[in-house]
Amino acid sequence: MKFKKYALENIVIFDGAMGTEILKLGLDENISQGCNEWLNIVAGNKIQQIHTQYLQAGADVIETNTFGANGVVLQEMGLQDQIYEINKAAAQIAHVAVQQAGHGFVAGSIGPGTKLATLNQITYKEIYQAYYPQILALAECNIDLFLMETCQDILHIKCILNIIQDILKKYNKNIPIIVSVTVENSGQLLVGSDFSAIVAILQYFDIYALGINCSTGPENMLHHVKKLREYWNGPLLVMPNAGLPIHQNEKLIYSLNEQEFATQTLRFIQECNVRLIGGCCGTTPAYIKALSLQIQKLASEKEQVKE
Questions:
Q1: Which ranges of the chain have pLDDT less than 50?
Q2: What is the spatial distance between Cα 157 and Cα 198, in angstroms, rounded to a whole number?
Q3: Distance between CA atoms of 216 and 126, rounded to whole angstroms?
Q4: Are 53 and 96 within 8 A, CB to CB?
Q5: Which of 5, 94, 129, 194 is the most exposed place for a label (fewest CB within 10 A)?
Q6: What does pTM read for this prediction?
């Protein structure tokens, strides 16, 4: 079943954090070279294991391990010549996990990089060159959707959308696109754009859904999602963190446990008509399982009311 058709008929559950799960593996830094995306090449079985855990927890969509697999980030790691290969490997790993699980969709994860175009830290041409090999590899591997996530700069978003649309047109492909921003407490992007400006600019692009990820925990994110809903009538994606990060016993933990996260996140479905939902920083397969069970319970209660 195609992703958009499935999303019309179901609440779609996305996976949780990748970096947190990679950290749990305890891999030698000599293996990763300080780059999680390099693990697609040298430890693909470990990445596949993480995907499988999320699928078993109830996720409908798993994201490729490519958040930083663009030329901007990989150049800092000395891996700029491996962009295409890293992204191709990541998509193939995710596809295998889905095939073995017997269900699920693959989202090609595209992160924001480390430089802001609005602040003249990078040019449009440089972004285009840095991201083209990533997006080409993901498209050629027939991912089910593109997920631009943790977006902080509207100029960056526009450039990536142009790359995606150029590649889809050139290769005659039709892959849904989701754009997910991260906002400050003010409800604005890091560079100052608010939801009215974001929607006004992006409504002319062929975007399937808009959303918010990272930022804060679900409770503090709720009013931002309600504000975005005022401007955007299409599908919404929400992927909050597991609460706020806290330093405890020299470790970084998040303030919400699995049940608290699931209960608070369910409000997006109930109050904002969100149909695409998942987790960001600090969330694990246990968080996604708790969320999945809450959604199943909600669906069951609605069926009982109909009867």
A1: none
A2: 10
A3: 30
A4: no
A5: 5
A6: 0.96
